[in-house]
Queue: 4 jobs
Job 1
Amino acid sequence: MNAKQKRLVRELDLDSFPGELAKRRKRLGLSQTQLGEIIGKHFTVISEWETGRRVIFEPYMVHVSLLCLETLGADAVREALARRSR
């Protein structure tokens, strides 16, 4: 694992991640449905993750997906999704 990967792992606080997930999703301007489409999960799964009703079995995958969205910008992702649905 390189230094950047180690930093990403250290940044993930599993205890506060459900609440952080909702904040980060909203900051990106994405609905639960849109985030679910991006990461391949149904919106009800996103909702249950955010409220803590469901355990996130892939927290690092979700964390890295959010980092990518934050880097690329949600607009770029929405445009890609729109092109895909045509």
Job 2
Amino acid sequence: MIDHQLKQQYPSDVIRELETTLQEIGTIQPVWDEDCQEYSYSHALYPSIAAPGDTPAECIQTYHRLLARFLAERMQGNLAPHVQRMTSGRGGARPGSGRPAKEPTKMVRLPVDVVIWIKKRPRPCGANSQADGLEKNKARFIAIPLF
């Protein structure tokens, strides 16, 4: 729930963005920090924002205030480039990028004597080598009966 002071302090578009962002973040659960002797909270989506507080409620209120200020600055384009890169969400895989998917394959382990027997068998279509057989038949795979 957004504090009444924040709603008065920031324009409605910043408040809408803040509500959307808080839904993305989910439940805010501050963690007790033994080194600092206070509660703190930070989220992976917004790593540049860390909110301290003496109580969990104060920590949550501070996080809302800092997040609203961060969003207002981002909407005005006042963020430093390294902070914008950290939170822009433009990294990672994109749909359609990378190498195309290949056909699924399956690896089969055979005893060595069976492999030797298969290699000694005559090649399809009287070809001298497996590559010659592929060229003549324009086949992608050679079926070898395993029984």
Job 3
Amino acid sequence: MVGLVLAEPERPDELIRCILADDDELVRMRASDALEKIGCTRPVLLQPHVSLLSGDMSRIDQPSLQWHVAQILSQVRLTPRQRSQAVRLLTENLPESTHWIVLNCSLETLAVLARQDPAVVDTLLGQLRRHDDSSFKSLANRARKLRSEFGPEIPTGAPLFRFLITLTVGAASFCALGFAITAMIPNADAAAPIVNATILPLLFLSGVFIPIGDNAPAWITWTARIFPVKHFADGIQAGFLGTTFHWSDVLIVGVWGLGALLFALRFFRWEPRT
């Protein structure tokens, strides 16, 4: 379908008529998905239909259509008036929708519009503060990432205190863990492989390198909760950004540090074993 429309530029009209005239949600979803793919390849073909995107199409209560409309609005060129309409639509989606894809796409498109027009930044920051504690992990991660881009703030007061406490406990605990794992390393040649095999999987499973989304397998979530890396990362991030802070994160990191210290006191030796 996409190839056919790209070959015959008048065909987007037919897709839009399918969306507006057909009550079948599957037809609407496929038509809007085709429009989004066309927008990725040749957004100029959708340019004449911008008013419909932020008008009649946006008023259809169907999540799969709403997230495609949000994506398309980030692809086409908008006039100042059209951008204002798009911002209004997206800020309506964010508090009203309960679908995580709609929320993610709306927030990302709002960020695209903020990069184009600094006047949108304040609106975006308000939405980011509202969603950086979302129960949807992917949405919370996206909001925090965008906050670091658009509105990084140096923590003060209570957030600064929590940040410093987490940093201090984390630094001490990971130092203790370093001494503890050293007790299991037989010689210098084995140090790098053992350390990398230990820490790298934990960094990935804890969402440090790549944020863990809402659809992640349960075993990844539970593994991350057992070990201290995720709790330290969450505590540091919450302390710095001023989001919801959980003292349990600091407690878990501290417990790991205490356990590592006791283990190191019992087994650590300055001399290699072999």
Job 4
Amino acid sequence: MILLLCTGAMIQAQDKFYLRNGSLVKGRYIHKLSTDTTIHVALEGGYIVIPQATLAYAKFKRHYGTEDDGNERVVPKVRPPGFYGALSAGINIGSHSTYYNTVKPFVESLFGYRWDKVKNVGGGISFDGYERYYAVPMYVHYEYDIGYQNFHPYLYGNAGYGHVWEKHPSAEGVTVKGGRYLAIGFGYKIRAGNNDIRLSLGFKSQQANLKVDENLIWGFSSRKQNMNRVVAKVGFTF
């Protein structure tokens, strides 16, 4: 509920306050109360009190020459729409059936656009290590934030193509090519100022296509190898 309280405040610049119900309030941000649950916004002929729980996000203008120079900020509980990027590092846990269990590192870079407040769509690229191979998958990335709190869960999914090559050529007559790449997972985002710390656990599957020269009589044969891994990673959104 928003209460209208009359004062003689004059508006020198307008900040924009987007509420969760879709409303837009334009005025000058004054301050937060000591309870940190409401904010005051000056309007023509008065000011309003906005409960923090109803605020989606805010865009500010600096107010020079006043007691409030614009340095104080309300940290929104919902990220505004716009472009974003993320960097992550993690480990692939698991192995091919003919190898012992292994833990291999990887790095990941994401870029995209946040729309509808909690839906994020974009692209990504990563560098993965496996027992016999290296892989560089490129993929479409989708995230869905569950909730608006400073500590909230999210879901993600990737789909694309991974370029694969052998660390050390195994034998003559064997050609390795890339294949489809899929990943799903869940995690938590922790608000850190205007950015997020990302912690997640998931599953990925990278396919490698092998072309083997059997002999001159039988010719070539094709084989597919699926490298399925449990994934744990930590990252940073900016």
